[in-house]
Predict the 3D structure of the following.
Amino acid sequence: MSASLPPFPRPQEPTDEPVLLELGSGADEPCLRADAARNRARLLEAAARLVAEHGAAGVTMEAVAAAASVGKGTVFRRFGDRTGLLMALLDHSAQQLQGALLGGPPPLGPGAPPVERLQAFGTAVLRQYVDHLELQLAAQPEPTRRFSFPPQRFLTGHVTLLLRQAVPGADAPLLAQVLMGYLDPALIHHLTEECGMPLERLEAGWTDLVTRVTRTELPR
Amino acid sequence: MSASLPPFPRPQEPTDEPVLLELGSGADEPCLRADAARNRARLLEAAARLVAEHGAAGVTMEAVAAAASVGKGTVFRRFGDRTGLLMALLDHSAQQLQGALLGGPPPLGPGAPPVERLQAFGTAVLRQYVDHLELQLAAQPEPTRRFSFPPQRFLTGHVTLLLRQAVPGADAPLLAQVLMGYLDPALIHHLTEECGMPLERLEAGWTDLVTRVTRTELPR
DNA sequence: TCACGATCCGGACCGAGGTCCGTTTAAAGT
DNA sequence: ACTTTAAACGGACCTCGGTCCGGATCGTGA
């Protein structure tokens, strides 16, 4: 196995507890060598251009390498694999969302009651995914790793926390997965593009789902 | 585009309405030529053997072809792509489940109240996926097509129907997607294998989820 | 029985992701 | 400035899914 690189240091510890502090891939960059940093920037720019010109499907690792005047190996060294490269392209907006969740103004950030924060969370994520939908889809890792990727873990952890507050008796981690499942890019794509549902309907669905799930009075 | 073959005649019409009658891929097989049928059987047998010996990852299209003493092209002609082959391996149990849902004894089949049928549905699917989990995972199509594949559409349609009866006021198709999301093989794998949750917890989670979602009294 | 056409077969071929390893180079130490 | 070394580079190479098309085969109608 090649030691690859840091961007997404495979989690390893399979806990379902929130990892609130590691901001996705934002913290411990080992400070690249000058040429490496330059090439990284070049590659991201080239990739973005390719997306704009030929869509996400046109982002071939070789094409990116060529467009950045760089060897193919360099792309893999820097980003690990295709998914890593695509995720890096989305990293900025992901960081922004994480910031808003942790320290932004209510109701997204701290300060509002948990159920309201959940409502806001859903519509925020929904909207972020709907822009960049194609990229978001293409950046999806293989099914097995989907739930282990830092961004996903962060969001799920956040929801878990809010759920614990909102509905103390429930199995929060499990319910969190349910809510996150509604926000799966592939599902959003299916509902909007293939079933033709308007975004408003999805948002209403989220609202309804959250209120149903957070009802505290148990069955009967 | 190669016309490929019937096994999964790409849906084309993006409706969210249930397609209750087409039993997955079971009905309209065009009756293969003798040699084709023989090769199909050989291929399935070979694939099953490879799964047993080397796991799903060992099921290479070339390996299957070789093990069945058949050309590679033949595999693709018959099954369309890797996913198609793997799905064919799971077809039997899928058909069985569909039969039980449509005509089996309650509470899985008709006759029980919808909420009870939903409960039974979840545990049945959960169990079916947990056996064959590796295969189920490997057979997963690329994200974009996941929701369009006949078996998935059938199950989702079934749930939609039950939800319409159980909770008339709600957006049944959307809620159905939520419930089906809980039964995503990748999620099941993550929770059981990586988080170490026992199956009982997942089943309890399903029960809880269904009761929460089907509560009719609206918020306040 | 024979001929003919639709169907099927096989494996060469292609593209893309991912790996390997000999070479180059930034940058820290002397 | 010179040495040293860990890091980065580049592109040949491998694997595997998927396509193509000339040739073999089945089954049908005469």
Notes: Residues 2, 33-36, 60-62, 72-73, 76, 81-82 of chain A lie near DNA strand C (CB under 10 Å from a C1'). Chain A touches chain B at residues 14-16, 137, 140, 143-144, 146-148, 170-171, 173-175, 177-178, 181-182, 184-187, 189-191, 194-196, 201-202, 204-205, 208-209, 211-213, 215, 218-219 (CB under 8 Å).
